[in-house]
Structure to design on (365 residues):
């Protein structure tokens, strides 16, 4: 099978990245070591190619109302320049994808979907637009665009140093889940203060033809700060420490938002696809954080029990590079208290882990 390639593939090859097939894209798994890249983001900064993420534009007089109908949250009341995390569910309430919606103009929105789900999300938006006869155009611009993330405590200094001077003050005041259009060396860019690492960070979207020059300019600016290129492997350990769910692990089409700890983003007081099913559904599970001792990490699928009674299973687990002990996310029976000790089957051996609040790690700034 021929893999999709981001515009930054020549850069990854030059840097001798270990590549992998991720959602049909040739993506960098790592450039050096997972731990080195993880630590760089926690202590300094890391730069990621996320151009496999779906970039879907929804534009027109009914764009806002269409997205309200298509997603579990209300985005039509969101001011221009704001972003919001949301979910798309099916008629039964099962999660199709988690995504971020950016309002870029009065009748213009950008939907950033997971790379593995972007075609499904685009198809569903088109289908749901027809259901409500929305006056809106839906365009998947993924292959014509790039998305570069700079994440870490030094990210503001790195990105700010390359923003053209006339935009510097506006960039410096950019708040969390805010976004705006700037220029870097005269190149138009769309910069959002969002990310998937638990650190301060920025996601930079631009024309794919400008990807390599932007990467090189950002990399040069990051050198004095110790910024390094980072792959998908470290991105996964970073998001797990931050308690952020991953589609295909914590979130699936067989589970509802409340069953996976995401019920807070659902607004049941408006009409949307799946609303009726979610209103009638009483969740029996939710998302928990577990912490253990020693060096043996539980993995996805590991069974969790209490006094011999099954509670559910681990969805993601690692030996935390930052904390130095095992952590895991798990979908378990509702009603369990923080501090409860449970038994986890780690490769055939029982290991005690304790229910702890999420996130496991929170940036100090």
């Amino acid at each position: 099978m021929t893999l999709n390639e981001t515009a930054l593939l020549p850069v990854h090859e030059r840097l001798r990245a270990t590549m992998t097939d991720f959602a049909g894209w040739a993506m960098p798994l790592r450039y050096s070591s997972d731990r080195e890249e993880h630590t760089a983001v926690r202590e300094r900064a890391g730069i990621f190619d996320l151009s496999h993420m779906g970039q879907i534009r929804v534009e027109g007089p009914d764009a806002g109302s269409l997205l309200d109908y298509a997603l579990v949250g209300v985005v039509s009341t969101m001011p221009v320049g704001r972003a919001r995390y949301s979910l798309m569910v099916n008629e039964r309430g099962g999660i199709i994808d988690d995504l971020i919606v950016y309002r870029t103009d009065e009748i213009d929105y950008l939907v950033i979907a997971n790379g593995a789900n972007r075609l499904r999300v685009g198809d569903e938006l088109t289908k749901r637009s027809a259901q409500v006869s929305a006056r809106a155009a839906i365009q998947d611009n993924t292959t014509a665009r790039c998305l570069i993330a700079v994440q870490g405590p030094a990210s503001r200094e790195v990105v700010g140093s390359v923003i053209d001077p006339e935009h510097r003050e506006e960039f410096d005041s950019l708040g969390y889940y805010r976004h705006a259009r700037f220029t870097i060396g005269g190149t138009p860019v769309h910069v959002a203060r969002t990310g998937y690492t638990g650190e301060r960070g920025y996601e930079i979207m631009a024309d794919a033809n400008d990807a390599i020059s932007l990467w090189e300019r950002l990399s040069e600016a990051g050198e004095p700060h110790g910024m390094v290129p980072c792959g998908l492997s470290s991105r996964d350990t970073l998001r797990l420490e931050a308690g952020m769910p991953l589609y295909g692990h914590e979130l699936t089409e067989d589970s509802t938002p409340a069953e996976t700890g995401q019920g807070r983003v659902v607004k049941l007081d408006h009409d949307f696809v799946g609303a009726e099913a979610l209103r009638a559904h009483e969740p029996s599970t939710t998302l928990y954080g577990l912490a253990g001792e020693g060096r043996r990490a539980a993995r996805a699928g590991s069974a969790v029990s209490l006094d011999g009674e099954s509670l559910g299973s681990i969805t993601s687990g690692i030996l935390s590079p930052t904390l130095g002990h095992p952590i895991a996310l798990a979908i378990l029976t509702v009603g369990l208290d923080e501090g409860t000790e449970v038994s986890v089957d780690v490769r055939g051996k029982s290991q005690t882990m304790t229910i702890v609040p999420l996130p496991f790690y929170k940036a100090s700034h």
